Each structure stands twice: as structure tokens, then as C-alpha cells.
Amino acid sequence: MASCSYFLLLFIHICFLMGLSFSEDPSVSYEFEVSYITASPLGVPQQVIAINGKFPGPTINVTTNNYVVVNVRNTLDEDLLMHWSGIQQRRSSWQDGVLGTSCPIPPKWNWTYEFQVKDQIGSFFYFPSLNFQRASGGFGTFIINNRAIIPIPFDTPYGDITIVIGDWYTQNHTALRRTLNSGKDLGMPDGVLINGKGPYRYNNTLVPDGIDFETITVHPGKTYRIRVSNVGISTSLNFRIQNHNLLLAETEGSYTVQQNYTSLDIHVGQSYTFLVTMDQNASSDYYIVASARFVNETVWQRVTGVGTLHYTNSKGKASGPLPDPPQDQYDKTFSMNQARSIRWNVSASGARPNPQGSFRYGSINVTQVYVLKNKPPVMIDGKRRTTLSGISFVNPATPIRLADQYKVKGAYKLDFPTRPLTGPPRMETSVINGTYRGFMEVILQNNDTKVQTYHMNGYAFFVVGMDYGEWTDNSRGTYNKWDGIARSTAQVYPGAWTAILISLDNVGVWNIRTENLDSWYLGQETYIRVVNPEPNNKTEFSMPDNALFCGDLHKLQKPQDISFATSIGGNGSKLLLGLLLMVSALVSMFH
């Protein structure tokens, strides 16, 4: 009987690998077990969310056009969805991992994501998208490398380093959630983590003894590619490495015009790639700093992440004061001008051989215009909520894409206003009706008192303008119509606006939201529904075989774990199912 079990397991693995081999592009597979562990990143034991026992989780490292298979086992005590931030999920919003498209993975279940990183390169990250879980971890970096035949616009770096930074509380996500549900603000974070670790003890008063900090070891004279993502909750962070220039090279899938910064503001949800040359004398280690921006720095001193850059020939530990942050307490234009300086490298090739700038977005006629305005939280029906254009989004019981598939009526309304509501705010499942192959202009107007970062799933949009004050039609005269950066996450400064352009060529249902986790949790989001009206079109993959059911369709859900079903390559999954049935028959013969 033992040999029969061994044969069964071996045959299942062979079938699985055969199922993956039907695509022309290679497949890369990962196993994610999502669980709670106890960690003390700020010196206080607390519950964090780990992947395969690690916090942060492992880096997903793939190449353009790879198929990515991630089998996620949920061992938490609540529902789970994993979102792949910045991964465009071409033709397959089913794999996006947000409530508008997918039913959650129940506790003790596993579900297999399968998607292609089609025509993408760059630096991204993943995280759990439900229930404020990102505040407890569960995040990690996601790298898409160029194919070998596509040249990169810089010399191949000696090494590749990933860094995740973010504000952090010593309370876990369930406690923070209760605070928000009770109508209160979260208050000042307890610190900033660098790669899941607390600050180096650069100051004996501010930093207690015994905290584990991040050290990055490098070789003198070498140039490294350093990828940095702000995976935090709500705090914009200034990133800098003492005595080293940061040569900006890429952000969220687009190569940039290369220019040096001594520090760069990285807002919640944003990712950047720097080329950093180790050209110092290594008299000691150097500070790596991520400090809170746009706050009273005297009060927020402890909300500073500090690691060390260690040359292999270093002569001692880092000491002395931290490198200064931007001295712009009374100059609100410094950070915005820095953001405006980040431009598209129009001559570089991205994921394809043709130059990025061959897509001349500035000459395309706009077909739809939406002004999305956020304000400070308001009370709606006795609850403290955030809004977008006067609507506080309510996640549907039946995900929008699933409701469309099964023609469930009343799951959502396709009536999101093009301009902010003038009446009282309301709670609704209101969705934007995007026109397939249209060109949408979205103005993000931030009338709150803190920076808001907006992210759109399924797309890279063009950031064409930003300024203080209220946007008007005349503001279009300031737009950058040539080399505005294409990315998936853009900051909007308080009392200011940011304009983006989106080419709606990716069919599906796509989330547009604030990345500030507290505001997102309270309703500051919506979805853009993009449908190809042509009959029998091939612009979207069919619903995956392993789709979960919930809401009005919950009775369709089978009770067993269905993680062996696959989603892309329908013929491959049918063959796989057939092979598994053959295995079952063979096993029954042994009994």
C-alpha cells in the first residue's frame, strides 16, 4: 500500500508538470503557506502574517511573459486574498486577488493563482488585500526581469537588492481594524520597518537595545540595482543612503530618464529601482534611512527606519547623526517638483523591442473624463467612512466579475458619477463604466489633509500633471504630453490634484483605490468595468476552473479543497483532470 501511495504522488506531480508545459512560455511555481507567527520587529512581541514562516515573504522572481503559478494555502483564522500590485493580469481580472473580482479563500483552504506576466518588466510587490491584513505583513517583492533579447538601458548591475519599507504598529491588524470600526484614527505609527526589521540603534534614547536591524552587505566599487517598495499603511517615507547617490532607473514597470537623487519620497504603494555605486571609502558602515514625511519631525522622530550598508572592507559600525531629510518644512513644492522630475525614458525598450515612447499617448483623443475627489472622513448612517466623489464603496457580496458571468442582478450599479456628487455622501456599490479601447482621463483631487496615493489594477497609466489647488479644464494646458511616466501608483498631495490618462485595452473589472490602507478600508475606492461588446471575442480568458463562489452564488461552491484546478491553458487543465481520473482508477485496482 505504501508503494501505491508513492506511485500516486509521483504521478500527480508528473501530471501537474505536464499541465504546465502546454504554454510556449516557461512557468514558474511557488507555494505560499500564509500563517501567523510571533515576531518582535520593534522589540515588542506581536502577531504578524508570514509566508512559509518568513516575514516579509519570499521574492517572486520571474521573466517577461512567464506563467506564474502560486498555490496559496490559508492557515489564518479569516478569509484571504493575495493581490499582485502592479501586475496587469492581461485578459484575466479573475486572478487579481481583490473582492471586486474574486471570492476570498476561506480558512484552511488553498487556491492556485495562475497568470502570465505578459509584456511587463519591473519592480512590484504582493500583499493580502482583505481585512486590513497588510498592516500585519503577508507582503513581499515581485520582480519581472527583461528577456535576454531585450537590452536594458544601463550596464548589468553587479547585484540585485530588494528592500521593503513601511510604517508599522505594534498592534496587529485585527486591533487596528477595531480602532477604525469604532470611528477613531489610528494615530501615529510606532515605527518604520526595513525588510521587516526595526531600526539600527543610531540613538540610545530613541531606539531601545536588542532590536534586530537590516544590514545589506556590498562590495566596494560595484554598482547594484536596489529595488525599494513602500508596503506600509499610510505614511509617505523619504528614502536615502548616507553619502550615496540614488540613480533612478525604473518605477513600476517603466524605465525612467536616469537622474541622481540624494533622497526620494516614496509614497504608500509605490516602487522604485535605483542604481547605486559603492564608491565611498568604507571608513565605517553607512545608514540606510526611511523617515516619515510631511509630519512634525520632532514628534515623529521614532517613526524612522534605519538599516546599515556594510562594505566588505568596512572599518567600523555606522555612528553619528542620520543624513538629513529634505529641509522643506515650509516649502510644499519641493516634493511635488521632485515627483514631476520623474519622466519616461522614451528611447528605452521595456518588455518589447520597440522604444517605450513609440506609444504616443499625448496624441490620442480622450473619450471619457472622470473627476475623483476625496475628502476627510465623514459620517454616513452613523459610521465613519471615507468617500470618492461622495460615494463610499461597499464591497458586493457577489464579486462584480462573477456577478457578470452568472448574470446576477443587483450586485452593483454601473452609475459612478463623472463629477463629484453635490448632495449628501452615500454608501453604494457604484462602478465606473469604462469603454473598451477608450482613452480615459482621470483627475484625482485630494481635498484631505494628508497625501493620498492612488493605484489602478490592470493597467499602467500616464501621470501627465499635478499641481496645488482645484483642477479646472484650463489645467490641461500644463499637462506633459510627451514623457509623463507610465506607472500604476501615483501620489496626490493634500489640497492638490494629479491627472492620469488610461488606455482601456484590458478587458475585465479593475480596482482603482487609495493605497492608504485606513482610507481604503473605510471605502475610498471603486472599480472600472471594461467589457468588449463584440460577440464571441477572445479578449478575455474564460472563468478559471477553480473559481470560488460566494454571495448569491455560494450554493455553487463544492465543499472540498479544489486547489488542483488550473486556470489558464484550458486544454491543459482538462488533460490534467483526465490524467488524475486515470490515477484514481489505477489506485482502485490496487485495492
Automatic annotation (TrEMBL):
Keyword Membrane listed: yes
Cofactor: Cu cation
Protein source organism: Olea europaea subsp. europaea
Alphabetical list of PANTHER family matching this protein: MONOCOPPER OXIDASE-LIKE PROTEIN SKU5 (PTHR11709:SF123), MULTI-COPPER OXIDASE (PTHR11709)
Compartments where found: Cell membrane
Keywords for this protein: Cell membrane, Copper, Glycoprotein, GPI-anchor, Lipoprotein, Membrane, Metal-binding, Signal
Record's GO cellular component terms: plasma membrane; side of membrane
Signal peptide: 1-23
Record family assignment: Belongs to the multicopper oxidase family.
Family annotation (InterPro entries): Cu-oxidase-like_N (IPR011707), Cu-oxidase_2nd (IPR001117), Cu-oxidase_C (IPR011706), Cu-oxidase_fam (IPR045087), Cupredoxin (IPR008972)
Identification of the protein by name: Monocopper oxidase SKU5
